[in-house]
Amino acid sequence: MSPDLLVACSMHNVHLMDVKYALVTHSHRDHFDSTNLVVRKQGFPERDELPRLEFIAPPSVMTLLNTTGVKDSTMGIQRIPILPYDHVDLYRYQIKAVKATHYPAVGDAVNFIIDDGTAKVLIASDTAVYKEEVWPHLEGIELDQLIIECTVGTNTGFKEGQERHLSIDGVQSMINRMKEIHAITDNTAICATHFTHKHCPSHDELSRILREIGVECAYDGLVLER
User: Fold this and answer.
1) Rounded to 5 degrees, what are φ and ψ at 41?
2) pTM of full prediction above 0.70
């Protein structure tokens, strides 16, 4: 729910009123801008009734949402707070949160495993390399899709950045460990995303580098199909 969400939806013909579930990983502004929920307030949309949005996020995000002063009922949302290793059942989706290596000053940042009964995906962003406590929760899950951040890109010398994010060698380290514990298999599709212009080369160059380790390079408008 980044600040450019409404623009991106307009560009790619996505109607936010059709979205039933929203999962937010942490309260950094590039991941959660509460305005995106406030504009659901009755009086903004051209609807008499708002469809309910189930909003899943850690406590720091819920606290930030409180600062809007707008009632949940007015925005048509139902809050579902989540902490690392919690499970949530969303009709056809099973959600599990794992602890992200990110935003340690707050400590509740998560990544999500999503299972619809036919495929399992892990969205590993934002995070640096997972701490040891996380790996037992991924052992043997055999993901169908891994979406992993590569924020620091090819700047493998930026060690401070890699305490919060992944560079190309961090991505490789995560993939190697996941293979060892059968979290991913040879059939798992892997896609890298969440790039910063400051540390990444052009899309073509980064695509070439990622292909060498079996990873697809994401781009705006990419649709992932199983």
Assistant:
1) -50, 135
2) yes
